[in-house]
């Protein structure tokens, strides 16, 4: 017994004198389940996207079974036999899974968090006294899950507010020590920023000096310059922020930071006001050293500048010149609103599936020799989940058949061994004598669709039989001995059922009121480390718990004959079988949250663990203090819409995500490589960035059908070329420039000065290779002065500045401006992301913006509507005519479409 409890809690227990103990039965709370709390979700849009918190890209069944590798923390029982409302990612799950960052499970809004400067420690006494850290840092996100609308049905689909919890996150101290660690975007910005080391504006007269231009207004004139690394204070919102750390341009500042100079009242729009603007028919006005006309001019200040002035008379003393800087060229200096306390946001902050939540923190159990990085992930709801599921099942009956994306293989499905069975007829003959599956299993349609052709056999209907499809499934179904099977299963079309996620097939809502005392008694009784006398002592309450709703369901899944034990060890073994792992994930448990602290609940374990006033158990007292310090529910509940009494409906987080996202098409690296098969491995990172951006916005971009995706990439392939170029190439032969562009036809000597004569090495007529200055000259000649592109004259440099970039090769100031407006209009899609593509067009070389620029064109021109017309060549041509009307590549784009359709990777 002592050894057992030392293993569970890392503490000693004196079991020498058994005490009599009256049984305490699990009962309902004294308070019945109250009506659901009304969450503050009026403006919370239904979620559209899901993401595995560690971006595991395997299928939903593999994601579930992978959790069996965790060292502890299974749903719904922990290693110590107590209720555990979430799942753990720890050193056990790290194999085959990148566990550096934690990402948001689904679209929603951050409502609360806590981050300690440094995690607290618990002092345990063993052979030596040891302080063991426990991260209690968390983020709480609120989501709204809503069934899809039905065309022609005016009724509002059923919806559910639920929460995702990310516990044991990294300390604030780690972020301070390493500034390169990515920070969550929902933390507020601090007022002090630094100019990025990648800032690329040029200091006039000193081209080697790079940094950030300071403007007199948004998109205004340059009045100062900040070198890379300069620290500044700003205010405001949007693409340009007001510079607060300086009263004006450096040329006008005195050593003490005050500003010098005078302005004539004639150039002040409102001379009688302290804060006004510069107004003049000229582009700039004079700032003078003294209030005299004859005095030397010390600065030229652009019109429309905002100034603060003082004094009276013909001249006003300058007190401030408002200055503005481009926000995204500053290093994001964000930090938590507060540390070492729970922060409940007055205004929740929108967050998308896959956005950064934080990083795994350190946690050391009482019995562990070393701390380990750990994430506890949980999902729960305070709504009436039973009513929601009933309503969802009714709604599912009205949904179209295409929404039924899970094939149900019922218990007793024959699994025909592959040896000697290679035809449908052989499989049919062997099925009667084949092993039978021992449990129901839902298989996602995408998993079946992605099977290689040699693992699918389709049999057409006959006058006497329905059509059938045979699938070769390996290690998904198991037999009565819990042995995983490899073999063929049959889907009889129209007979084998397909179900929708909204059917909640296999899900049970379980109301369970057992408390830690009952669960621990059950655990101790099931463990061989206790004596017969002790087992008998705990038997009454242990049996009551074993026969309770939660344990009864676990026995039905894992141990139908009840001839075994129900501990985390048995649970872990069961999780290695996909059907069992799925069934366990379908348990929705109404229980009191671990994070709702009631001292009496834990004090009730004192006697079980041998603690009393006369014989104190120091380690158990330390453990209870740790439990109290980790709690947060009471600080948060009523402010965010959770039940104040601490009980909620708990869902398996990975199971919930999997049932709704497991069949959605996702752009993977494999898919992107099939679109760009000639790209080298060094470019796979770019492909993954494209996939991530598309997945995060697949519905918004209207790329939600295979036909739309195929039409989209038939065009993108042509625009970017096989090498995925998102920056227009100006390596033109001189004669080609003369043939293609009016400017070079009129100025052939310019074509020969800058275009190449010899293709190999791009050698020009003068014998030298082409350089960047040649590319700039060609771009300015080709696009400069083009009014349809919005570009100013050749000397303006607009041709080069607004050259083709992005997946669709966005070209011209007019189109960059339109994209800027579009991006700002839909800023809710990418909160906290405010780029300025007009001021910094090179941003479109970043893959996420390259994708968005192509999507803006796709959406603005409603090309998705044309794509819906079908797969005929004329449909491709209709889209091409809008993308690039006068191109000679119509046949190439049709060929792209046919090839993508043939491969089927976008289905």
From TrEMBL:
It comes from the Bacteria. Residues 19-47 are annotated as: Disordered. SUPFAM superfamilies: Lysozyme-like (SSF53955). This is EF-hand domain-containing protein. It comes from Pseudomonas silesiensis.
